[in-house]
Design goal:
255 residues, 15% strand
């Protein structure tokens, strides 16, 4: 049975902000200017959000892309039709969820010093950034503008560009969700930053529409629970802004 509600922020991550460690989270409704308690299944999703417009075309591209990376894909997985939702994202989210669970259980930032965790977590954050509805809308606008411009070109030029014009905004976003080679240099750079576990003051906890939009900033504060966050910033002893418990190797920042 196909999954209809496909979350752009995974449910495991939303559940980490539950008061009672269940599926109920407090959500702020901007139009009504109030908070409500709701199930994670009902928020941060779109119907069939990751399903390619053309499954066969997508599978051909995916196999070719994997071959370039010298990866052999199991054709049985592709036959599921919802490869991105049921295989790719599911694998990434399970791995990240296990890492974050260990971080919260340990109550310190020692595990944040592990390179494997750092790379995994950065890929997860970049993935959230790439799959946000903000980018879908952005690409739809740009593609509409592109098509209008190309419509004024001579027919011979349009024929040369027809394959490129066939790519939809949805397909372009899906390609970026899967193709992370654009971000590898950034992942390597940020994995060498200074990482610590932040303890947040619940009364001054911040909210935002989409924290991944802040990803381009050098200093990142990424919430992982109601009172914990991961701080990532360039190593600069001359501009240290927080207290880091290095003496006892806990790597904790108090905000």
């Amino acid at each position: 049975m196909k999954t209809k509600k496909q979350h752009y922020i995974p449910q495991f991550f939303l559940k980490m902000f539950s008061e009672k460690n269940d599926s109920l989270v407090s959500v702020y409704l901007k139009p009504q200017d109030k908070f409500i308690l709701t199930n994670t299944k009902r928020i941060c999703y779109r119907d069939y959000y990751y399903d390619p417009d053309n499954i066969e075309k997508f599978n051909i591209w995916l196999v070719e892309y994997a071959r370039k990376l010298k990866i052999e894909l199991n054709t049985e997985l592709l036959a599921k039709d919802q490869y991105i939702e049921s295989v790719y994202l599911n694998t990434l989210e399970i791995t990240t969820a296990n890492f974050l669970k260990k971080i919260l259980e340990s109550s310190n930032g020692i595990l944040l010093q592990d390179d494997m965790f750092r790379v995994c977590f950065l890929i997860f954050i970049i993935n959230l950034h790439a799959r946000s509805p903000y980018y879908r809308v952005k690409y739809e606008y740009l593609f509409n503008q592109r098509n209008e411009a190309y419509a004024r070109f001579p027919k011979e030029i349009q024929n040369q560009l027809k394959n490129r014009l066939k790519v939809t905004a949805k397909e372009q976003q899906i390609i970026e969700i899967l193709d992370l080679h654009f971000y590898f240099e950034d992942i390597i750079a940020r994995s060498k930053y200074e990482w610590s576990l932040a303890i947040l003051d619940r009364e001054s906890f911040f909210i935002g529409d989409n924290f991944t939009q802040l990803y381009d900033l050098k200093e990142l504060c990424i919430p992982i629970s109601l009172d914990r966050a991961i701080l990532i910033r360039p190593k600069d002893p001359n501009q240290r802004k927080w207290y880091l418990e290095r003496s006892n190797k806990k790597y904790i920042t108090k905000l």
